[in-house]
From TrEMBL:
Segments forming domain Heterokaryon incompatibility: 26-113
SUPFAM superfamilies in the record: P-loop containing nucleoside triphosphate hydrolases
GO molecular function: ADP binding
Classification of source organism: Eukaryota, Fungi, Dikarya, Ascomycota, Pezizomycotina
Protein name: HET-domain-containing protein
Superkingdom: Eukaryota
Xref: InterPro entries: HET (IPR010730), NB-ARC (IPR002182), P-loop_NTPase (IPR027417), TPR-like_helical_dom_sf (IPR011990)
Pfam families, per database record: HET, NB-ARC
Gene3D superfamilies given in the database record: P-loop containing nucleotide triphosphate hydrolases, Tetratricopeptide repeat domain
NB-ARC domain boundaries: 277-455
């Protein structure tokens, strides 16, 4: 379908749509855009935009066409509805053919002026030829095909004065563009020129979007490609080269009708993506095998970069195979899943997809499971909540689940992302890839790419310290970089803010703009993990209790025996499994001789911080700190040597809890420290014991006064 401007005898303009096989004779405009000054499709339809400078070009084209006996004309700014992805893709892939089919092509050079006293500009070239040679029109990517495709091309100044034709100006055009005169005259078909030579004609030309430097060559090489804005020039060039080779081998896409939209990727290509090459290779080796249906799950801690890795993999999969379809399905909720499926169905032109009460999920599953669709990759992102994919869609036991609507085809692959290891095992039991922390080098490169001013990263020691504090976690690094950029803050200043108890929570709750994350989901570290906390609280209450308890003690070396006694042994095992599954805690590996020792767990540094803030936000921090202190008092004796190897593991946690001034009352802190000091004496750690008992004495004096028996007992212990 092509939309043309019709000029009535009184000069009014209206848009008329024609199918490609019944087009009337028409003129076509070639020009350069000025951002904000062009008249768009919706403005022309509504009758607005006439005050814009771009409207004069539209009038020029329509009026000039009328002078040449043509009722219809075409101007790209207002004849394409660019808000519709499918229409824009169709237009760009059809552009060369539309220029080729025009009866007249008018090149409007807004930067070439002819003096008012010159009536016939062609007789006085000296007045405009230098401006013609310098015209911006010759530097733009899209104008190359507009120069070569039409049968006739006439050039006009900004006043609408005719300067000449492609033939009469061929020597100047040849010198400016390096396009051979035989190509300008149409004496040689473009296919007779080599691929490198045709590529060289576009060298040095610019476009607003980098991908358009490649897309503007589609007609020059007589190929069709799906548009993927955000893939970058390099990937687009790779896809163009692959399609040219396929065309030369007789296997290329034969028509626009055969070209379905290849991608529903919601985010542009992340130009700041770094590292993860081993994981990308694993995904490629596991998923991109020909003629076999494969599924795989990528799981890891929230904020570790799962979606970013999946997005990079998706763009690479597109670049590797020009005809591959890539679909992105957010599993944030059943609604987000169904909306994504509807969009897939519409873009694939699935019959009946827009009907009232259509079984959208069933139709899309059937379409993608059929042999008629080519190779495809589906990314099911954020499959964190098992109830979304594995819960029944109708709320009834035995009814279909969203998981049941995933297609199965030897040409299709599915990649899931989740922060829940149990969900990963349920989705693809034998095909799971864990995404761990970035390496120090990768984290450093990510920070360097994200921080806009290099001088803010001049202190190498501070950069290393910051990356350690952020635990090499991608989302935390991106969030820190956003703060540094927007506040022009040095890394050392950010570290001071981070270490300040009063501002650290604010830093991780600081919202920032990130085009590679869902707008409906807040992208901060705090909000990312708060979502996980709520899921755990709903799905596994005992795991939520363990999480709350560990948030109030030292994050390192948590003995399983210290956790609050609750539930059956099976429930305890499952609760620990849940926290490990979300990568919130890791189990310490024992040496062979220590295999019978009890299990010890470490909590992720940032998870520990954020879970503490979460408790504070829910007014639960004090209650859980009191529970932690009570649990420690139960397990820590007043010194002695009995079970020393057991209670020794509790001391660091007691010291951590006792430091919670303002949360734990003074007497409780003193009681806990008294036990710790006596145990340190039993262990022969006399210097540490002295320090601890001094703290007890100060606390007792503060609570009871210098002469109270408890204070005197503390003084004796210190002595």
């Amino acid at each position: 379908m092509m939309r043309l401007l019709k000029r009535s005898p009184n000069g009014d303009l209206e848009l008329i749509s024609f199918s490609d096989n019944v087009l009337p004779a028409y003129a076509i405009l070639s020009h350069t855009w000025i951002e904000g000054h062009e008249v768009a499709y919706n403005e022309l339809v509504s009758g607005t935009g006439k005050e814009k400078t771009g409207y004069a070009k539209i009038r020029f084209c329509a009026d000039r066409a009328a002078e040449d006996g043509l009722e219809y004309s075409w101007v790209d700014t207002c004849c394409i509805d660019k808000s519709t992805v499918q229409e824009l893709q169709t237009a760009i892939n059809s552009m060369f053919r539309w220029y080729q089919g025009a009866s007249k092509c008018y090149v409007y050079l807004s930067d070439v002026k002819v003096p008012a006293e010159v009536v016939n500009a062609q007789d006085f070239r000296i007045t405009w030829v230098e401006a013609f040679r310098r015209s911006r029109w010759f530097t733009r990517g899209w104008t190359l095909q507009e120069l070569l495709a039409p049968a006739t091309v006439d050039f006009f100044s900004t006043e609408g004065k005719r300067l000449g034709s492609r033939i009469s100006l061929e020597q100047e055009i040849h010198e400016i563009t390096r396009v051979p005169i035989s190509a300008l005259r149409g004496q040689q078909h473009l296919s007779e020129f080599s691929v490198p030579e045709r590529m060289s004609w576009a060298a040095g030309r610019t476009t607003t979007f980098v991908e358009d430097k490649v897309y503007c060559l589609l007609g020059i090489f007589d190929v069709f490609l799906p548009l993927i804005y955000g893939e970058g020039e390099a990937y687009a060039t790779d896809r163009l080269g692959a399609e040219i080779r396929r065309r030369q081998a007789g296997q290329g896409t034969e028509s626009q009708q055969d070209l379905t939209v290849s991608s529903t990727l919601p985010f542009p290509k992340n130009e700041s993506f770094v590292g993860r090459e081993d994981q990308l290779q694993s995904l490629e080796q596991s998923l991109l095998l020909p003629n076999t249906h494969r599924r795989m799950t990528l799981y890891g801690l929230g904020g570790c970069g799962k979606s970013a890795l999946a997005l990079e993999f998706a763009y690479r999969a597109l670049a590797q195979h020009a005809g591959r379809l890539v679909f992105w399905v957010p599993a944030i909720s059943q609604d987000s899943f169904e909306l994504a499926y509807r969009e897939i169905g519409i873009r694939l032109h699935v019959p009946g997809i827009t009907d009232d009460n259509a079984d959208v999920k069933g139709l899309v599953k059937k379409a993608l499971s059929s042999a008629s669709v080519g190779q495809w990759l589906m990314v099911v992102d954020n499959a964190d909540d098992p109830d979304v994919l594995m819960g029944s869609t109708a709320g009834e036991v035995g009814s279909a689940r969203l998981l049941d609507y995933l297609p199965h085809s030897s040409r299709g692959k599915i990649l899931f992302t989740t922060r829940n290891r149990k969900a990963a095992g349920d989705l693809t039991q034998n095909s799971v890839l864990e995404l761990k922390d970035m390496s120090k080098a990768e984290a450093g490169e990510l920070l360097a790419r994200r921080v806009s001013k290099n001088e803010l990263l001049s202190d190498d020691q501070s950069v290393d310290r910051l990356l350690q504090l952020l635990a090499y976690l991608p989302l935390a690094i991106v969030q820190a970089a956003a703060f540094i950029n927007s506040n022009d803050t040095s890394v050392s200043e950010y570290i001071l803010l981070f270490r300040n108890t009063g501002t650290s929570a604010e830093l991780f709750g600081e919202q920032f703009e990130d085009p590679s994350r869902y707008r409906e989901m807040e992208s901060t570290i705090a909000k990312t993990w708060h979502i996980s906390f709520e899921q755990i609280r709903r799905q596994d209450p005992l795991a939520a209790e363990y999480l709350s308890f560990i948030a109030c003690i030292d994050r390192i070396g948590v003995p399983q025996s210290l956790l609050p006694p609750a539930g059956s042994q099976l429930q305890q095992i499952k609760a620990i499994g849940t926290l490990k599954g979300y990568a919130f805690i890791t189990e310490r590996q024992h040496a062979l001789q220590e295999l019978k020792s009890e299990k010890l767990f470490d909590m992720h540094r940032l998870v520990h911080l954020v879970s503490e803030w979460w408790l504070e936000e829910h007014d639960e921090l004090t209650a859980w700190t009191i529970k932690a202190a009570a649990q420690l008092e139960k397990h820590i004796p007043y010194g002695g040597h009995e079970s020393m190897e057991v209670w020794t593991r509790y001391l660091s946690h007691a010291l951590y809890v006792a430091r919670q001034d303002g949360i734990l009352v003074t007497t409780a802190r003193a009681s806990l420290l008294d036990r710790v000091g006596r145990c340190q004496s039993s262990l022969g750690q006399y210097s540490s014991a002295e320090t601890t008992h001094r703290q007890v004495l100060l606390l007792q004096e503060k609570s009871f006064g210098a002469e109270h028996p408890s204070t005197l007992t503390s003084m004796g212990n210190l002595a």
